[in-house]
Amino acid sequence: MSTSNPSGNVLEVRGVSKSFNGVHALADVDLDVPEGSIVGIIGPNGAGKTTFFNVVAGALRPDSGHVRLFGKDVTGLPPHRIAHAGMARTFQLMRPFGSMTARENVVAAALTRGGSHKDARLAADEVIDATGMAAWADATSDSLHTAALKRLELARVLAIRPRILLLDEVLAGLVPAERAPVVDLLARLREAEGLTLVFVEHIMQAVMKLSDTVVVFDRGRVIASGEPTEVVADPRVVEAYLGQELTGA
Ligand SMILES: Nc1ncnc2c1ncn2[C@@H]1O[C@H](COP(=O)(O)OP(=O)(O)OP(=O)(O)O)[C@@H](O)[C@H]1O
């Protein structure tokens, strides 16, 4: 798929709405994600953040609106077609193959890019090192604790070598000492490989550190968007989200 997209945006979302039984999970959402940028999405529980990822990644068809990826309209395409175009995502609930080792799960992800088993094993070794999984990479996935599963989920999507990555709360369940290496890795991948990243996160330290742009969802709408320091000072954002969240972050 071409990168010669005149807008310079990897992802463009226009007027996307999605309702469930009359509940507006998304209401007329617009979002631009420039190539190589990091966009942090925040908002209270039920604001529509996961629904947004589901629509963008093809798991849900929007009721109206459009999603463009690398300049091409991908609205309503199935997830595998969108993945093939260069987008990968993580899930809040991780679904590794439990009887396989962590390493085998990462190799399986790398194989989805095509190429040989040998290439997939090399790619897996690289992300296993980068995500700090080496010590337990040969444990079966169903024996892993939450922090390890989070790392595995991240390694799995990185092994796919996406051009744009959607991360849904990859830091939740990690203690602060475990979060820093993941945040550093994401920053490095953007610098080294030009990875474009859109991430949903409640850990505000990470949001402030990583994001070029912070987008705030509330009741299905984007209520603020802009530079991190400006957005967190916006009274609407404090009222909708940060007032309660900052005390617990
Ligand atoms: N499959 C579904 N069926 C019915 N309602 C749904 C479904 N998915 C989401 N919703 C509703 O849509 C709204 C947005 O939910 P969503 O999970 O997108 O929010 P969120 O911002 O990701 O929340 P959280 O931070 O808790 O993950 C909520 O009211 C939720 O109950």
UniProtKB/TrEMBL annotation:
Gene3D superfamilies (alphabetical): P-loop containing nucleotide triphosphate hydrolases
One GO CC annotation, please? Answer: plasma membrane
Q: Which GO terms describe its molecular function?
A: ATP binding; ATP hydrolysis activity; L-isoleucine transmembrane transporter activity; L-phenylalanine transmembrane transporter activity; L-valine transmembrane transporter activity
GO BP terms: D-alanine transmembrane transport; L-alanine transport; L-isoleucine import across plasma membrane; L-valine import across plasma membrane
Q: Which UniProt keywords apply?
A: ATP-binding, Nucleotide-binding, Transport
Domain of life of the native organism: Bacteria
Ranges of residues in domain ABC transporter: 11-244
The name of this protein is: ABC transporter ATP-binding protein
Q: Which organism is the protein's source?
A: Streptomyces brasiliensis
